[in-house]
Model the fold of this input.
Amino acid sequence: METYLITESAWETMTSVVRATQGRFETGGLLIGPRSQPVIVAATKPGPKAEHLPFRFTDDPNHQQAEFDSVASEFRDKVRWRGTYHLHPGVLSRPSHGDLNQAREFLDHLGGRVLVVIAVLNGRAFEPDCPVALRGFELQTGDRSFREVELMRVPDDSPAVAEALAQEPETIPVNSSDMWADPGFLSYLTPSGRARINAEVAELRDAGFRVTTLRRKGDHRLLIHLDSFWGRLLCIPPREYPLNPPSLYLGRRTRPIPPLTRALAWNSDGRILDLVKEALTALRRHCPVSDALLLMAHRIAWPLRRVFVRRHYHLPRRHGWPNLGGLVCGATTEDGSIVRKERMS
Done:
């Protein structure tokens, strides 16, 4: 059975937090220790805004972050979040199914291994010196269930703790892969990136857009032209797409229009279609009636389009929308050079 060293201060924090509840509700906090060694140097308190219920609790994230930052500064960033501790009612001294699911979620994000300490009050919970029993359980990536570990209480200045901290670098080494170090890297030219773009182009076409994909001369950036009822949009995904949102442009003029909520809150699950829909909604809401008629002329027969198209591209100039990011009106390319149409397949 593996042994985790728990410093005196971390042990006292856990037991004092648990005793304060008198067994009426759940409570707990985070465990902090060296990144790669089975050592815990600090335990956080739940925080003033934590929510406690008889069978579960939600901690105060701002308080937890502040405590973690303080501990990390004290140990020169040689520590990280290693797990959690919390009180179980009665004599349930093993992790629950919910604890297992939560630990798996943590491992999906952090990898490595997670320590879960279960605390149980042994005796009269309302007594200030009620004994607290602590049991430790570890889950590693790929494990189907927890394995129990031994918890050993040691002084804060224990040589074993000092040795474990000495083995950790003060900063986390970052391994730069060739693709990110390469200034010419384009994520959508990788197999997974190309599949993602192809799927998104299919979504746009299914939504009724006429889609044309191009590659720009020089830097080979992908350009996605979208023809819609309200005009022509240009979408330029960044090199690292979908980690960051694409830039959207209207026509061939550089005039800013309102920011997009989806762009400001972007994550890798975002879709170009959702961004485009929000952009068109913003255009419809902010365009005067006279300008809207000109925009609709984009979809009318070719003779009328020739009459209106020049004025259409000048419409945003009169709006004066703030440039706050997300969606801007802009030239289709930096140098105007589009060399060929490309089918992303």
